[in-house]
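Message: I would value a second opinion on how I read folds in token form. Give me a protein, with the fold worked out from its sequence. Write it directly below this note and I will take it from there.
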Amino acid sequence: MAYKKGYFDSDNRQLTDVFRELQETRLQYEAQNSKKTANTHTAKNNKPKNVQYSYTSNKKTISISIILVILLVAMVIAFCWSTSSSANDDSIELYSPLASINQEPISIEINRHRLNAHNIITSNAALEVVKEQVIEERDIPFDTLYTNRATLPKDEKVVLQEGTNGKKNVTLVRSYQNGQLTDEAILSEQKTKDYIPQIVDVGTSEFLAKIKAHLKDTLYLTKDTYLRDKLEDDGKDIIEIEQYFDVTLLDLPNEEWCKVSYEGIEGYLPTSYLTSAAVSPTMPEKNRIKKLVVKLDINMPLNQSSGLTLSDFKKIFTGLPNDKNHIFRDNYEVFYKIDRKYNINGIFLASIAIHESAWGSSQIADDKKNLFGYGSYDSTPYESSFDFDTYEEGMELVAKVLVKYYLNPIGTKIYDNEKAVATYYNGSTVSAVNIRYASDPEWHTKVYSYMEMLYKRLEK
């Protein structure tokens, strides 16, 4: 036999013996049925005609036998298959009991790896795999375009145009396992909107980066120079610009020269002569003072505020070496208030007081608190001069008289809703006031010299 002994032994019998017994049993049934059939026919002939015989019992017996045989064969085959899966040999050969003697044996491959059918069924029953096809809108990222710009500080970036993403419809298949996304495959893409690129300027100017400035900014002169008609040293001089004055930066043709505007006049300056408030924080204040001092002129109008701040007045009148009695130091705020309230240059008023009272040391100033000799006549200066309770009282009265009668044309609106009478008006300059105010023809030059001295103290 081609099969291994022990696989199909049951009570030391082989599989062919079992099939042989089954065949003999079938033959015995057939012989018994034939004998019964013959007896039935004999008995039938001897029985009365009205007696009927049935073969139902024999038919049932044969059907049961056939079913039993089929079941037995199926059980044997199943037993052989189960047993062979645990054997060490790669294959076995079986002979069919119903096959002819010359039939070749059947070869069955043995599976060495057992399969747990329960686990396979359980795990696959719990596994849920879902696929879906969707169309979704997605962004197309915009590009950024960079351009070098010589009129920007180095490495500074300015966005000229904001970028906008484009749009596209994407068809894709998504796979989910137990509700979790496991795969995504893109089938096609269709653009629906173009993106708009972002445009960015990148600065390259080391000069602007150094002074932390941009075009249109206010810059300040670090030394006296000339505004020229072209960006060269031999360019024609247009106008002189003094230190601390300010200009507006218009253009930067190169790193050595720039185009600026000064009081509405355009021209070129060396970049090395310029700075900014970001780099030189004191420049704006120096510029303000410079402009105030530059306005000082013997022909400047005096019927308007000086524009000086309270701090400016304090700086001017503090530490004056000739102010022995500290009269002007103690009254700097009075001069400031009169300057603003009555629209009269407070430095001009103080200069008159200094000149008329010899720095507050005259007898009239000392005895009568009258710094101006107000009311005096040349023949009787002391006796005719006014008495005041305070220096401030005399300062304010003289300011009101100058505004109402000397500095403004007739009908000019002045303090307390009054109008200028202009009785002694000849102009608003110090020399014009001299004509009717003082008998000394050089009075105005002496007063103006004190004004210059006081204004210059702002630059210290």
